Amino acid sequence: MVGRFARSHAPCSPSPACRARLPVMAVPSPRIAERLSADFGASAPAMLSTLERLEIAQQVDPERIHAAILLAAHGSQTLFQDALDHAKEDWRDLLDRAGLADDGWHRLVDAEFGENPPA
User: Fold this and answer.
1) Cα 65 to the chain's mean position, in Å?
2) pLDDT, tens digit, 9 for 90 and up, residues 62-78
3) Is residue 30, in this structure, part of any structural domain at all?
4) Exposure winner among 8, 32, 76, 114, fewest CB in 10 A?
5) Taking a C-beta distance cutoff of 8 angstroms, is the pair 115, 30 a contact?
């Protein structure tokens, strides 16, 4: 146990290869936050906070996981929690469940959530 939080992974050496395997937490993109607000109204801020605290594998785009959770939720808080649990247990399976498992996932996310503004 470290502070109040238990470690969710084995200790890692300072090597880049080891650090690359550690999960990250990511702030949801504006389009994810907008969709969350549209789908869940007054509950959205608490749910956004939950997405911000979700540990995500570094080898996957965090927006892809966040989008998969919202797509699988279909506007239901119960399904949102189920998709969140699914993301923690097997994020690859969640991507498949949400239709975001293949290389064309960007197009589906753009179609469902609107295109990202240019950087």
Assistant:
1) 3
2) 999 999 999 999 999 99
3) yes
4) 8
5) no
